[in-house]
Amino acid sequence: MRINNNVGMWAIRYLQNLQTQQNRQVQSLAQATIPIQQNVAFGAIAERIRSQINGYREAMASTYNAIGVMNVAEGGLQSISNNLQRMRELAVQASNGTLSESDRAALQQEFSQLAQGINRVVEQTTYNNRRVLGGDIRDMQVQLGPNEGQQMRVTLPGMDIKSLGLENVNLNSTENAQNALKALDRAIETVSNTRSYVGSVTNRLEGAARELSNTMLNLTSSVSVLTDTDMARGIMEWIRTRLQQQATVGILGQSNVNAQNVLRLLG
Length: 267
Hints:
Blueprint: H1 5-31, H2 40-94, H3 101-124, E1 126-127, E2 130-131, E3 140-143, E4 151-154, H4 174-227, H5 231-254, H6 259-266
Helix pairs in contact: 1-5, 1-6, 2-3, 2-4
InterPro entries: Flagellin, Flagellin_C, Flagellin_C_sub2, Flagellin_N
Main location: secreted
Keywords: Bacterial flagellum, Cell projection, Cilium, Flagellum, Secreted
């Protein structure tokens, strides 16, 4: 028994409506931004919130870049500190007046290599092609929030041998070795103070990043409440429409409707 063409034509129209409905559902799920009851006020509020979110996103990028600079700086400072400590040990040994010339020369050779190593660390400790410990970080502005006045400025001193006051230090005599000890103690203190500064800046930046992240999460949730599709509901409606389509196609299969019409619909 075959269903008449009137039923078939009804099925075609119904299938067309279902196809249009499914297209809207797919678009809605893809964009996840349909207005609630087409409320213009909600849309305007959502746009303002999105603008705030963009500001917070830029602030987060600035903050995390600064954290990267501080982390790179800390790594370089650790290496410089290690070299300075070893140089101090050599200076203590060189302060012994009973050393032979060959012993003193050996100490001086290692001392010079360590000094060169410090300069090499300074040249190689870079972030975005800027020498973090070479004096390139001067009054660096970090945006900690989306609004004016929410900035901090960061400056890192140079940590090369000349900046540390060790350019003319050597262990060629007992007197020079003792003078080297004094210069090294000052340099070690400078590095220690800089590491403390880096640590405090890093803590502040990480705290700011957490606040920015939490605020962005809350704002994003607010936009979702105002504009986003209920994904579970949207998917269920899409599945229901799909099942209705399949059932309607089954009706068409029992009717005398022209096959070309069906293919055109499904295409």
